[in-house]
Structure formats: C-alpha cells, structure tokens
Amino acid sequence: MTSSSESAPLISATSTEASAVPAASVRPKPTRAGFPIRLKHGLLRIIDLSALGFLEPIVRLCYGEEPRVQLRKIGQFVVIPVLAFAAFVGVWAILAPKHKTKSGEVPTPAVVYEAYQAIMTFHERENAKEDAYVTSGGARETLLADAKARLVVLAEDEAAAAEALAAARAAEAAAKAKAIAPLQQRLDALKAETDAAEQEREARLDAQAAAVSDAASRKAYLADLAAFRTWKDAERDRQRAVKDDIDAINRAVAPTTQEAITAQTAIAEERQYVGKLEELLGDKGRELKVAELKTRISELDTAYLSATGRDLYKTANSLLITQGRLDSLESSTYAKPSTLPYQIQRSVLCVFIGFLFGSLIAIPLGILCGLSKTFMAAMTPFIALFKPVSPIVWLPIALIVIGGFIPDPDSHWLMRWLADLPLIGVFKINPAFLASAVTVALCSLWATMVNTALGVASVDKDHINVARVLRLGFWQRLFKIVLPSALPLVFAGLRISLGVGWMVLIAAELLAGSEGIGKFVWDQFSNGASDSFAKMMVVVFVVGVIGLILDRIMIIFQRMVSFEGSVAAM
Amino acid sequence: MIVTRLLLAGLAAATGAGVLAGAETEPLDVEKNELKFGFIKLTDCAPIVIAKEKGFFTDEGLAVSVIAQPNWKTLLDNVISGELDGAHMLSGQPIAATIGFGTKAHIITAFTMDLNGNGITVSNAVWSAMQANDPKLDSATPPHPITAAALRPVVQDYISRGQKLQMGMVFPVSTHNYEIRYWLAAAGIHPGMYTAADIGGRTDAQVELSVTPPPMMPATLESGNIQGYCVGEPWNQQAVAKGIGVPVTTNYDIWKNNPEKVFGVTKAWSDANPKTMLAVTKALIKAGKWLDATDAEGKLVNREEAARILSRSDYVGADFDVIKNSMTGYFYFQKSDKRAMPDFNVFFKYHCTYPWYSDGIWFLTQMRRWGQIGEARPAEWYHETARKIYRPDIYLEAAKLLKEEGFIEDADIPWDTDGYKPATADFIDGIEYDGRDPLGYLAKHAIGNKE
What we know:
The structure holds two protein chains of two kinds. Chain A is mainly alpha-helical. Chain A contains 19 helices and two strands. Among the domains of chain A are: 138-268, no CATH class; 340-569, MetI-like fold, CATH 1.10.3720.10. In chain B, the strands form four sheets. Chain B has a five-stranded mixed sheet with strand order 2-1-3-11-4, with helices on both faces. Chain B has a five-stranded mixed sheet with strand order 8-7-9-6-10, sandwiched between helices. In chain B, strand 12 (330-334) and strand 13 form a beta hairpin. In chain B, helix 14 packs antiparallel against helix 15 and helix 16 packs across helix 17 (379-389). Chain B is globular and about 65 Å long. The chains are: A mainly alpha, B alpha/beta.
C-alpha cells in the first residue's frame, strides 16, 4: 500500500472476502471433501483476520490438506493448550485445600463452580421475583398454587434439615469432647505440676535470698532468678501449646456438620425465596394491588356523587390521590437488586464509554503531536507526568469534578436524557458511572496518543514527496496520506488502551461504588462469608474472558486496516 | 372501628405477634415513590432491609432499592450528592456534617435505628498479655465487664520499645471511635487528641487509632497492622469464628443501651419530600417493632428470620451462623465463652427509635472532648445543634399515623417527652451523663477537653 488509492480497495477487498462466505454457500462448488473451495478461503481469511490461528489446521484438515502436517499443528496449537489448562486446574484442585488460612481454605475449582451456580441462582431468583410482581391472570394463579405447594414441601424439608444439623452438631460436640478430654487432662496435670514446682523453686529462692551475704552469692542469686524466669516462660509456652491444640480442635468444623449446615442453608434460602414469591404473586403483587385500588376508586366515585360541602372537597381530594397512586402503581416494577450479569453489562458499557472519551481526546492530540515537533514538545511534559498516575488517584478527582457539574442527579438534564435513552437507559447512568468512565479514559488514552503520534510521524518520506508533487492541500494530505498509513499503529494503540481501560475499570468501580464488576468484588470481600472467596474467583474468570473478547475485537479492527509486512500486522 | 382496632391491638400485643393483626396501612400521597437507600454491611442495617423485605415500604407505596456502600465516606457523599435518598448512618455523621467537621451539609434524622451492637476485639497476643497481667482473665469464662486496666502494661511495654499500640475504628466520627476512646480513657490510657493540625487524632496518644473499613478489620488484625479494633457485628464474631482475635468487651458494657446508627437524609430532601419522609419513617418504625417482637416468655421471635434475610449476599452477606449469634441475643467472647446478651442489638425496646436530643448531645460532647470541635462552646449551642439534626416532630407525626392505623400502641412511643433521656450512670466508669448539662458532663472526665 503506497498511496491512498490502494488503501481503499484493500479495505473493501477485505469486506468482500468476508461477505463472500454466504455468497459461496449459495453456489456451492464441489471439492474433494465436499465443501466449496471458496468457503475454505473465506474461513481462512476470517481466521487470519481474527487471529484465531489455532483453528486454521482444523479447517485445512477438513479439506484433507496434508493431514499429517495439520494433525501435528492441531496437537501443537489446540491439544497442548487444552492439556496445559487441564493441568492447571488439576494442580489448583490438589494444592488449594492444602493452603489453609484463618480466613478459610483457598477454594478448589469445584467450589468455584458451585459459587458460580450460586451467583446464577441468585440472578434467576431475582428475575423470577421481578416477573412474579407483574404476572397477572391465570398464569399468576398457577404460579401461586405452585409456590404454595412448594412451601409445604420445604417446611417439611427444613424441619428434617434442622434435625439432621442438630444430630450432626451433637455428634461433633461429643467427638470434640472426647478429643479434648485427654488434652485437658494433660493441661491440668501440667498446670498442677508447674504450680507445685514453681512454689518449691520460689521457696528455695527465698531461702537463698535470705542467705545472701557476699558479692558472689548475690551474683549466683541473680543467675538463679534468671534461670527461674526462663523456666517459667518455657512452662507457659508448654501450656500454651496444649491450649492451642485445644483451641484448634474447638475451632475446626467437622465436615459432616458443614454439610448439614450447607444443606440447611440451601433449604432455608429457597423457603425464603418461595415465601417472597408467594407474597409477590399474592396480595403484594401488582395485579391484586391494582384491583384493590380500583375497588377503592369506584367506592370513592360513588361517595363523591352524593357528597356535599366539606365532604365534597375531602372525597374529591382522596379520589385524585388514589387515582394518582393507581397510575404510578400500574407502571411500577419490582425493585430488583443488581445481579452479576447486569453488573457485567454495565461494566462493559462503562469501559466502552470511557474508551470512546479517551480515544476522542487521544487521536486528535496524537495526530497533532505527530505532525508538529513543537506541539509534541509542548505535550511531552503532560504525557510524562500523567501517564503513570494510577486510577485510584484519578477517581476521587473525577468524582469531585463530575459531582460539581451534576449537583442534583435526579433532576439534571444530562442524567434524565441518559435515563430515557432506549438501550442505555436501563443501566441507570449516574455520576459514579461517569467518574469511572472518565478514570478509564484518563488511564487508557496514553497508549493511543503515543502510538498515533508515532504512526503519524513515521509516514514514509516518499509518500510525503508524492503529496508535494501532486500539490495536495493540508487536509487532503492528512486524510489521503498521513492517516491511512498511520492507521495500523493507531489501532495497535487503541487495542492496548482498551486492555488498560478494562483493567482500570474494576478498580475504579470498586472505589466509586458504581454498580459493576468492581462493586461485586468489593461486596463479596465485605461479606466475608464462607463462599465469598470462591465468588471472587468466579470474577477472575469472568474478567479474563471478557478481556480476551475485547482484545480479539480490537485485533480484528487492527488487522482490517493493516497491510502485509507492517509492524502492526503481528 | 377504632374499638375493634384497639381490641385487636391488645390481642396481638398479648400474643406478641409484632405487627398487629387487623391493622391497615393508609398510604400517604408521597412526592417520590422510587427511592434508593444506602447501607454498610453491618447487622444494624436491619430496619432498612426488613422494611424492604417484609413489604413495609411497599405498603406505603414506596419502591425502595437498598444498595450496599463501600465505606462511610462514600455513603455520606452519595446522600449529599443526591445519588441516594437516604442511608443507614453513624450517629456522628449527621452531626459532623451539619456542624461542618468533614464534608459540610445539613443532614437530619427522624429515626434512631438501634442501640448497642459493637464490640472491641484484641489480637490473640494482646489477649495473652492481658491474661498475664490480670490472672482473673486467664479462664475460659472470665468475669465481665473487662476494663482496659489489664491493657495498660501492654501499652507501656509498646511505648518503652519506642512504638505505640495500634487499634482500628471505622470512621473519625463513628460511635466506635468514641467508644474505644471512652474504654481506653476510663482506664487512664490516652487515645490522643484531634487538633487543627492533627486531623488523625493522635496528638499525645498512648494508643494510636486509625480508620479501617469494617469488613477489613479481621484481615488487618491478622496481618498485624493493628492489635485491636472496635467495630459492629458481624466482625467481632467473625474474629472468634476464624480464631484471629478475642472480643474483650461490647459497647453494652461501656455504656448500657447507647445509641448507635440513625437513618439520615439531607434537610433539603426532607423539605422537598415531606410526605415521603413520613412514609419512610412509618415503615422503619414498623420494621423496628417487627425486629423486637417477643413471645410471652420474652424470646425474640423474628430474629432468626431476620438473620436469614441479612445473610443474603446483597445485604450483609456473612454466614448465617455468624450473624445469628448476636442477632438472636448471644455473643461469643471466646469459643468457650458464649454469653446470653438479649440486648446486644435493640431495635425498638426502650423507646430506642425515637430521635433523642440527649443522644445527639452526647456525641457533641465526645467531639468536643477529643478536640474534633476546636473551641469551647456554650451549653446553649449543644442544645440548638441537637435540635437542628434530631427531628422528633417528624417521628411523632409518623408514630401518630401508625397508632391511628393500629400498628403500634400508646406505650411504644414516648409521646410527652422533652427529648432528653433521664440522667444515667450506666457507664463502665460510672460517670453520670445528663443531656441537659453537657458542660458539666465534660468537666467530669480526667482525659480530654474539659469545657
């Protein structure tokens, strides 16, 4: 690609090749393996574009192309990574239970999977409650009957679980008492022994003190007293060791008890959930409440027709109030707490908004830096100074600045406008969200800015000369020559920026308390429940997978604007 | 109709059903029906959570979202910025915000959420040292209350090594800060003064106090950065469950039935939404009553259910077993030392939900005692400030509506009080506090500002 006239066809060629896939399937050409050959090229092109290189040998194998070479490649690029990951999970599963802290064990893969299921159960239950609140008619009655039946079963289960737990606890207590008894005996014996010995030694020391006369005996007394004190400390340590053993036994929870607790918790939680569901399907639900208000209004209507004087005002007033309440009730929904899937969506939206802000600042500034050495010199101190600043510093500043612009979020025009937007409205954008987005922007824009500047500055001299010969104006030169050749590096910068932004966002949300993955992590940490660590481990994988997807998306963009042999084509 | 209601009310009270049968909510014409309330993951957020989960807010025609906040500072900022409509607050927060210590904003409260509920925990090493200093403590069930007297030699030991014992509390104007200071000072240990230059409150300190968010306390103690802390539940029981430290005392022993959290909103919000404010207060009073409902033998009947609700991960989220201890009236001082503490958390008894002026004045005296209020003020200033923040007028209006609707009884509410609790000497050092005489109270203490 040496001029603008070549760059345009390259991009369009890419898109025609990509869109050739469906076209090819319309007119299949038989090949050896029975697949149209154009499909193969299309697939390979897509694989190459999205840097999913490990799929390439599979496609080639399907076409029977050098099976031996392809199988070796599959072994290298598919089987080996899968095995490595399996080995990682295996090592994790073996090592995790061995590392015990006072805060609990490191969760094993199985426990993390359970935590994932618990998170999803919570999500599903809240969704069910949300639906229950607004369900009406026959569907509501069926669900209500189901809930009632389930509650009866659960009440029995709960009683059984409580009994099982009591039995497990009793067994555990008996076992502990049995284990502790000899230790306690030893401790008591030790104490008695030490006390007796201590009295004896103290008496001896007293006698010695009484007999002290010369310097030598004084010295000897001092040494003896020191020895006595050391001995006492040692004795105390011996006692402490036994006490610690007893404490450790007391503290340990028997696996049978743990199981019984888990079983009981699961039932109790379900009972609570079904109980709430029953309420929401019944008289706390929208349908019945609306019906109640409607009856009330018709009563008031009748009363109003016959009311006079002071009563007239009162009845009319309550009629209007009730009518207003009915209106707001009819559009009301269940106030649902945020669940992880919602928080993930909100975080992704936040990172994209921040990334967009960042890019809108970084790309123009980067271009100016690349075009003018003077401007670059002016910008250098800012880049050097602000680039290393951590999100933890930016966030409070962003919060204060944004808070200053939006003193009353409920009535601010921007917040209202954002709340009414079709797809984005449900994410309830607030100042904390904007502050997180700005923090993402401030931390991530540097990579794009520096790369853009580099890309613009390193445009081939020949191209510039051609532009001179053609007497292109500034804008034409910028858009036809400079930008197209800088694009690959710009996108390389954008890709780094998005990765940084995603990493930074979690910390920003955690600090701002903005609903999202960061807040989920902090809430779990705050909970300190037995499954909190496992839930945080779930987030590790969620964040990792989303980061991976974002990176792939950026790679596709980057490859679409790159050309053979360029630095950024990687 | 009224007769029937009263009859039903009497019947329900006799059976202790909590919320009275036959009572019916008359929703107010609220200005705003979608509300967001913030809370910190502590069991004393219960009234807000219960009002939501038991449908008391919905009964008032309010759709309330209850959102966990990362720390007290963010919570207050969110209330001031309007991001939250109201929140579970430390008693000191509305006061400090109104007088301008920290972020300045006029915050009011018409509802005290609970009494008691905090504990002081020390590390295992400090506990062994305390046991060595006082042989009475070296037992599976030592006599309570435990004063800081046994801690004094440990403090001296640290000072002689050129260090200072470090302890954690949750916020500069938190009840916890004043309680741990009170406990230390009652045994003659100086916890340090706040000055204009030292906003960390460590001037002249023998024990240095620092702010740590509640959920971080056990981890910070375990890592050795602090040797003890004062915090609300479940973080003391958590230390016992994990074997990290030993709770030595509770704030019930420091001051019997001391006020703890309040429900705070900005004055501007309350002025703009007076009916909503009333409706919220009504729902919260009902929640308090539900939490403290007892059966004929005086057993708290709803607390186990409350503990189950609070253990949900979007509320307090700690294990049910840990929350249950203190919520159902028990407290583990050590694994071997489980004691019945029926008043560990009080949500309704003793007229505790009423916003007492005398409570506000106690916090003001503590702010003055430790130098957070920089200069001496006349007694009148204390009374006036308390009146600006504590709003029994709103509380009584809500209570009156609830009584008309048949949810509460006459005896539940101190209708005729002037807002000052009777003088009490139920403190660990026996010094009497009378809210009517703040300056006299300040003068009684040996450590801290005396006027």
